[in-house]
Structure formats: C-alpha cells, structure tokens
Design brief:
This protein is about 55% helix and about 0% strand. With about 70 residues, it is an all-alpha fold.
Length: about 70
C-alpha cells in the first residue's frame, strides 16, 4: 500500500465551501479532486477532437511527406 503524501493547498473560504458542497457522502477530498481532474481531462480531449474534426483536409500533411 502506498502511503499518501499530505500536502496543503491554500484556498479561499468560498472555494472551500464549494468543494465541501460538491463532495458526496463518504467521499474524500482526494476522491473529489481525482474526479474533477478526470472530468477536466475528458473535456480537453473532447475539445481537441472537435478542433481536429473542424480542420480542413488540406491542413493535414501525410506522414510520408514529413522529413526528419
């Protein structure tokens, strides 16, 4: 079992209250933050995918054309 490192992240009182309200019963702050991080990563991936899909075909270069 890996022992978690105890770190302190200073936040304002309103942010602390918002975080506390977002937690589910029995959920740790670590669990909440991990969930928030995963949600953010997924949103970034979805935004990137939308950006890639919206590019015109002429904006792409085939791998064969790329030189070292």
């Amino acid at each position: 079992m890996i022992m978690p490192a105890v770190k302190r992240i200073p936040v304002t009182e309103p942010v602390w209250k918002d975080l506390a309200e977002m937690r589910s019963a029995g959920q740790t702050y670590t669990d909440l933050l991990e969930e928030m991080i995963q949600d953010r990563k997924m949103r970034r991936l979805e935004e990137d995918a939308r950006s890639w899909r919206s590019r015109r075909k002429r904006d792409y270069v085939s791998l064969a054309e790329i030189k070292d």
